[in-house]
Amino acid sequence: MASALGTVGVQLVRQPGCGSCLPPCSLTDEDLAAYPGLANLLLGLTSHMDSSGLSVHLAQQMEEARKELQRCRGNWLKWEAVHRLLQEALRELGTGLSPRDQKFLEVLEQQLLVAELKRMLDLGPSLQDTQPSLLGLEASDLPELLPPNQELEQMRKHLPTELEKRLKSKCLALLGYYLPESDGAGEVARAAMLGTLAECLAAEKRRLRESQARHQELVGLLEQQKAAYPQVLLRCLAILKRLARELRLNAQSELDYFSTQYLETKCNAMFFKIRLEELSILLETYTPEKVDVHRMMRDKLQAALSQEEQDLATSRKIVSNYETLGPEFEELVKEYARLQAIIENRRWALREFSKD
């Protein structure tokens, strides 16, 4: 065998002075021998392309756009979190709050409604000429809907404290979910845990992303091996057939025996490697905690199924007992139902008379 590469995907390694490497290419030794300049051409492209196939300039633009999108998402999430906190606070209106808190929430609700109206009325010049205003309102009408300036000032002074209190409550709830043992800790310890909560969550997120990337990498490697091993085995089989034809007059039986042993060993090795990769992926995917949860779910479902089967058997037994009673029992059931209806009607009449 001239080379062990076969048709396995060949990835051009990074050359000195090149900024990136090309994506994996399915090249064989025959392809490289048939086109001598192909390898040099691909190596020359490594300075203009990255591993995903994009040009270096376009990849930089994509990275800048991704960072800008991430920044915009972060800003939007901050304001969205504040807005949701305010909406949750407004749901507490009329729930027995103190007069001060009740007044604060009413002024806050009125301020938010006016801001929402202003946003809805703030159309472009072209749309304002073609579409009527909402409910006949104009932007000049909105200041009349605002609360008095004194109430607005009091609300604005109290708003940071209220947001801080609610944000702290949310953070403590998140901390209790992420670290249940923190519920029994003191205020100082919980405050210290809150200081490192963001870093812990970011580290956990990075770990999950690395695990997902590793999983995808293992899946890709497994697929490559699944595609490569059969072709390698086919080439080995072709060589063995040629040797068998050349040596069958001298050592046919011995050659057949060794050929069979070789193929069997090669197949077993391939299956063992594939099984090893499969077990590695399963081991990373199904942790002991997930297996325990699945086992608990299966036990609960089996218990529920057995209970339903017992109930079904009981119901069938009752139905069979009813069926053995014959038509006389059906007449008694109808008479019982009729009497029940009469009793219910008379009870209703007594209740109506009692009302009068």
TrEMBL record:
InterPro entries linked: HAUS4 (IPR029327), HAUS4_met (IPR026214)
Gene Ontology molecular-function annotations: microtubule minus-end binding
GO annotations of cellular component type: centrosome; HAUS complex; mitotic spindle microtubule
Source superkingdom: Eukaryota
GO BP terms, alphabetized: centrosome cycle; spindle assembly
Name this polypeptide is given: HAUS augmin like complex subunit 4
UniProt organism field: Podarcis muralis (Wall lizard)
Gene: HAUS4
